[in-house]
Amino acid sequence: MDDADAVDYKLDMTDDELRDIAESGWTIYVEEHCGDLQVRPPTNYYSGPWGSTRSAVAYAESPLAMIVYFLPKELWIRIADETNRYRQQTIGAVAAFRRAKMLARQAQDSRVSVPSLEDYEEKLALVYG
Question: At what angle are helices 91-108 and 73-89 packed, to 10 degrees?
Answer without folding.
Answer: 50
